[in-house]
Design a protein that fits this description.
By secondary structure, this protein is mainly alpha-helical. About 65% of the residues lie in helices and about 0% in strands. A two-stranded antiparallel ribbon has the order 1-2.
């Protein structure tokens, strides 16, 4: 997830030494001058570490979904990932840290250390000034998000009831969701798309509930509705909340 600062050249040449010639003093590395050993990570080793984390994350996701969080051990994750148990602990200090990685990867769709609110699909929805397109984008990104992360969110929500570390992560995630929905609500206000009588606070509440994972879980899992039914419900609910009506082509517009 993190990138290495102070990375030296992949060839392993000394930082201050010329390719040819020069005295020994000219070729002293930073570690020689300061007496401290400079950390070196090659791109190949970084890529290998990232690939290992991805394998651990994928294996953990499958086990969490199949067996549940409580029944899944680090040893089982290591075995499924084809690595030593020590390797998992070198990458993740605790099982809750593994779950955090699984959830974050599901949310953003990759293992980049970029939060959802900084992803292009979120920023495009925030910047959109046309009500029709803004609501359409919200429906599309919410459906895609929950399709990726919904089952994993259910695991995390259940684990939060029995694991204090996961409970803390869950609470932090909910605060993040609230912050994202507040930002989205402000974008409605800033572009003049809030209906009469609504303010940022009321719009935040609407978005927090309609776009939240709990609502997806209620409709898709508890009520057993399919993805098309959820998408239709969400589109209609957002149009109603922001006083938009369907046009002839099925898009939303302010009456």
């Amino acid at each position: 997830m993190s990138t290495a600062a102070n990375q030296t050249a992949a060839t392993g040449k000394m930082v201050n030494g010329p390719a040819t010639g020069g005295s020994g003093a000219d070729k002293l590395s930073d570690s020689d001058r300061t007496g401290r050993k400079r950390e070196y990570r090659s791109p190949r080793r970084l890529a290998a570490a990232r690939e290992t984390r991805a394998r651990i994350c994928a294996a953990a996701r499958e086990l969490f979904l199949a067996d549940g969080y409580a029944a899944t051990s680090i040893r089982a994750i290591a075995s499924a990932a084809g690595v030593a148990e020590k390797t998992v602990y070198l990458q993740f200090a605790t099982k809750s840290a593994v779950l955090k990685m699984v959830v974050e990867t599901a949310i953003v769709g990759n293992d980049e250390a970029v939060p959802a609110a900084a992803q292009s699909w979120f920023l495009e929805a925030v910047a959109e000034t046309d009500l029709d397109r803004k609501l359409e984008q919200l429906v599309a990104l919410t459906c895609d998000l929950h399709q990726r992360s919904g089952p994993v969110f259910a695991i995390a929500r259940g684990a939060a009831a029995v694991d204090p570390d996961v409970a803390a992560l869950w609470a932090a995630g909910k605060q993040g969701h609230l912050a994202d929905m507040t930002r989205m609500a402000r974008s409605f206000q800033e572009t003049g798309l809030l209906p009469p009588g609504q303010d940022v606070e009321s719009a935040t509440t609407t978005l927090y509930v309609l776009l939240g994972p709990e609502t997806w879980h209620l409709i898709r899992k508890e009520l057993g509705q399919d993805e098309t039914a959820y998408r239709t419900w969400l589109s209609n609910a957002l149009r109603q909340a922001f006083q938009a009506t369907p046009t002839a082509d099925g898009q939303a517009s302010r009456p």
